[in-house]
């Protein structure tokens, strides 16, 4: 019986079946030639990995790398989300019937800890080291798409239209000995205006302002064989200090046909002005998860293990249309009456109850605290409903029931008004 999928049409034809089902409805093990993706195969390759349930899973799914340890190179709610997502997937996959159970921007420290801990992969989350192109360089992964200056130069080299910026005249790229498309340091520096010392290696560039614009994003999942799928999009236009504070999915402000063209452009960026591509998980990714049913951190993990998209169960079962609507609100330690100035201090009480339609997570608990060096965001709440109106009402109720007592200010009250 051939392999079938009911994923969106944009998924395209993945290729010939990689598994078959015998008369007993069991997957028949097969062998796959991974010669075309050698640079993506990790150190714990399937042919040298010790026997384990994970090794059996990777072999059965046609993968090439066995990962049983991950260094989470991030703190706060990013770490909480990664742990919960992978743990949920691992329990469901390997324990059937079981329950769902000093410096994060320092690349050298992260790589050193990864080596000493013997991990098979590093998960950097969002912010901190995930924004530093030195981390993927040090881990022998891609830099050219993980950093805005390099990615824009790469886009220009492919004749993709870009907004006018300080590197508009640059389009020179090169291929590394490992086969990666990269931008030489001397070309990279020409696009920079100066350096900022807040985080080592923080270059500054200038780009033309897109006035009266909406901040719309497309969630893309892609793997090393060249297959990609769009998991719809989100509207992140409500911001303060050019940082998001409220997000929602799917996009409703744009005409459906317009956003469909955006999705196609995201999968093959040849149409619009290229602004940015983030080949990392973003903090608001649960909005895409809730309308698509895809566990994104678990999908990341399986992709790194070399498993094709059409072998990932969540991708197999995703639907052509988003399920309902999600509104997400970030809870930050900021004073809205003082221009959203960061606030720090200790937390006496935090009381939040998840429900059928509302879910949230926080990086700080009772008797904890926030200091001046941490990210001001310490919580994220997501409300799901059949439509935008119902999800908005569910969020209002959740924010009214949220109780935070501490000697720092938060945006929770202002968020209710928005």
TrEMBL record:
Matching Pfam families: Biotin_carb_C, Biotin_carb_N, CPSase_L_D2
Coiled coil: none
Nucleotide-binding among keywords: yes
GO molecular function terms attached to this record: acetyl-CoA carboxylase activity; ATP binding
GO biological process, one term: fatty acid biosynthetic process
Classification via InterPro entries: ACCA, BC-like_N, Biotin_carboxylation_dom, Biotin_COase_C, CPAse_ATP-bd, PreATP-grasp_dom_sf, Rudment_hybrid_motif
GO annotations of cellular component type: mitochondrion
Keyword entries, A-Z: ATP-binding, Biotin, Ligase, Nucleotide-binding
Domain Biotin carboxylation: 66-418
Keyword hit for Kinase: no
Taxonomy, superkingdom: Eukaryota
This protein's name: Biotin carboxylation domain-containing protein
Organism from which the protein derives: Puccinia coronata f. sp. avenae
